[in-house]
TrEMBL record:
InterPro entries: MoCofactor_Util/Proc (IPR052698), XdhC_CoxI (IPR003777)
Pfam entry (one): XdhC_CoxI
Domain annotation XdhC- CoxI: ranges: 17-84
The protein's name in its UniProt record: XdhC family protein
Organism the protein comes from: Ensifer oleiphilus
Length: 110
């Protein structure tokens, strides 16, 4: 399993973590507008202890996604998050490039 983690591929890391019995959530960029820093299909994986690997925004909104993942791990209910300069989250998190992204966060059940 350690070889998978060494690749730093977020999906391989998620697979390894699930194999270790950890709770895991996967965040996936599902839509972008403007100059979003990560393309559709980019992943961030988060475990129940708050460890993470990957990126959905180059560091702009990862903290907010990790925070939401904790709730999703508890409830099991997937959620779509939207971030950008034109919504109410602009004062808490923002995309430095001025784009907008939608991120699906869902729990992985092993």
């Amino acid at each position: 399993m350690q070889a998978l983690v060494d690749t730093l591929d977020p999906l391989a890391v998620a697979e390894a973590w699930v194999g270790e019995g950890r709770q895991v959530a996967i965040a996936t960029v599902i839509e972008t507008w403007g100059s979003a820093p990560r393309p559709v299909g980019s992943h961030l994986v988060i475990d129940g202890a708050g460890n993470f690997e990957g990126s959905v925004s180059g560091g702009c909104v990862e903290g907010a996604v990790i925070s939401e993942a904790a709730d999703i791990l508890e409830t099991g209910k997937a959620k779509i998050l939207e971030f950008g300069v034109a919504d109410e989250t602009a004062w808490r998190v923002g995309l430095s490039c001025g784009g907008r992204i939608r991120v699906l966060v869902e729990r992985v059940d092993g």
